[in-house]
Structures are given as structure tokens and as C-alpha cells.
Design brief:
The chain is mostly beta strands and 251 residues long. 2% of the residues lie in helices and 41% in strands. It is built from 1 helix and 15 strands. 19% of the residues are buried.
Length: 251
């Protein structure tokens, strides 16, 4: 049996301002179908989603320039003796920039995606079934799937049910909730009138509901997957047997 669920964790979904206001105290959960997948979105909180601190790129720090004091020219005063004046300025040292601080996050925002498989189908008898003899069909999809998930701290239960639409390739079809079975228990069976090659097509139509915080809602939209399998139907072999003649007097 195929694995039904493959989960991929993604980030950054979009909620309207009204929805964002309702998601402060409790989580907002939404489940819907998109591109043949089941999508589960959740948001909780009112602030921005936590992001890593952006540290500015390092800049080159200029070295402090130290100038040697230069003795000025002697200045002649009234006493006739030269007076020497020296420079007292200190070199300027530039400080390195400090990285920006990290802002605290106050909201969660996640998305989960469920991938639904294409059904595998089979029939019996598996080798050249005969015309006017029932052929039994079945698939490997369960009749109900229940999955329990967790998103933004909330428990979500998703229930999915498939509807099977069998097209036998000769213009007839059959719709059922059953997955079918082999002879003699299977209810999905069909007899072909004429020999030939046919393409059996199975459409699996998924629909369901989800439960969160004690509330159950229907999942909007439907998901269809298609499986195709060839089948060759043959006529029953016939043999001509001449009549047996009995002569009189023979025992």
C-alpha cells in the first residue's frame, strides 16, 4: 500500500488583518485543497515572526594616525631668549561598529502540505479474462484515512474519504465508496461483451473534514487522481466435435 501522507514544513503564510486580530489569544487554523494537495495553515500571535539578527558587513577600520610633534620655530621674546612650544593633541581612535540587537518574536506561522497518492489497481482473473465472465477489480487505497497533526501548538485531526469511479473502457462506469476485493468477495465486477483491448480508468476523488479546538469543519474543494490499467479480454475457445455414428448391431 502506498504511503498516504508526506509532510513538508514551510514558512510565511498570509492572513488578513481581521484574522490576525483573532489569532492573538488562540491559534487560527485553515485547511483547504490546492494543486491536488491538502494544505494546513496555522498562525498564533500578533507580532512579527522571529528572524535572525542582521549583522552588518565588517568595515575596514582606519588605523589611528599618530603625528609626531614638530618643534615650532623659536619665538623671540622681550628677554631675547627663544621659547619652545610643543603640541599636546592626542591621536584619534575610531571604535568598531556593534551588531544590531535581535528583536523578540511574538507570533508563529507554519504551513503543512499532505501529498495524496495515485491508486494502484488490479483485476482477476489476471490473464486474458473471458467475455461474458465477471472480472473483479480492486485498488490499494483505504476507504477512510485519519491523520493527527500538530501545528503552532494546536492538535488538528484530518479525516479523508475517497470515492472511486471505475471506467471499464467499453463505455460503462461504476461509482462506489468500496475499494473492491478479489473473487468471490469483491463487489466491483464487470463482464465484457466483446473481445478486445481496453483501458480501465479509475478516478479517486478525495474529500473530508478537519477538527481543531473541538470544532469540525468540511475541507473545501476536492482532489481527483487518475489511474489507468490495460486489460485484454478474449473469447472462449470453441471446438467442433463431429457426431458419433453407431452401426446397428454394434454393442
Amino acid at each position: 500500500m502506498n504511503t498516504l501522507i508526506a509532510l513538508t514544513l514551510l514558512m510565511s503564510t498570509i492572513f488578513s488583518p481581521a484574522q490576525a486580530a483573532d489569532c492573538i489569544e488562540k491559534a487560527c487554523i485553515d485547511v483547504y485543497t490546492q494543486d491536488g494537495k491538502i494544505v494546513i495553515e496555522g498562525r498564533k500571535g500578533s507580532g512579527p515572526v522571529q528572524k535572525k539578527a542582521v549583522v552588518p558587513a565588517p568595515t575596514k577600520t582606519r588605523k589611528a594616525i599618530v603625528r609626531k610633534p614638530v618643534a615650532p620655530k623659536p619665538k623671540v621674546t622681550g628677554s631675547g631668549k627663544p621659547k619652545v612650544v610643543t603640541s599636546t593633541k592626542k591621536p584619534v581612535v575610531r571604535k568598531k561598529p556593534t551588531p544590531a540587537s535581535t528583536s523578540s518574536a511574538t507570533s508563529l506561522n507554519d504551513k503543512l502540505i499532505e501529498m495524496l497518492p495515485t491508486a494502484g489497481i488490479a483485476y482477476s482473473p489476471s490473464f486474458q479474462p473471458l467475455i461474458k465472465v465477471p472480472v473483479y477489480f480492486w485498488c490499494d487505497i483505504p476507504e477512510e484515512v485519519t491523520k493527527k497533526l500538530e501545528i503552532v501548538g494546536e492538535a488538528v485531526t484530518v479525516k479523508l474519504k475517497p470515492t472511486f469511479i471505475w471506467h471499464y473502457g467499453d463505455g460503462t462506469f461504476y461509482m462506489t465508496r468500496k475499494a473492491g476485493a478479489t473473487y468471490p468477495d469483491g463487489e466491483i465486477r464487470h463482464s465484457y461483451t466483446n473481445p478486445g483491448h481496453y483501458l480501465v480508468e479509475l478516478i479517486t476523488r478525495w474529500e473530508g473534514e478537519f477538527t481543531v479546538q473541538g470544532v469540525t469543519l468540511a475541507i473545501p474543494g476536492k482532489i481527483d487522481s487518475v489511474s489507468v490499467l490495460p486489460i485484454t479480454v478474449v473469447a472462449a475457445p470453441s471446438r467442433f466435435t463431429p457426431p458419433v455414428l453407431y452401426q446397428k448391431g454394434n454393442s
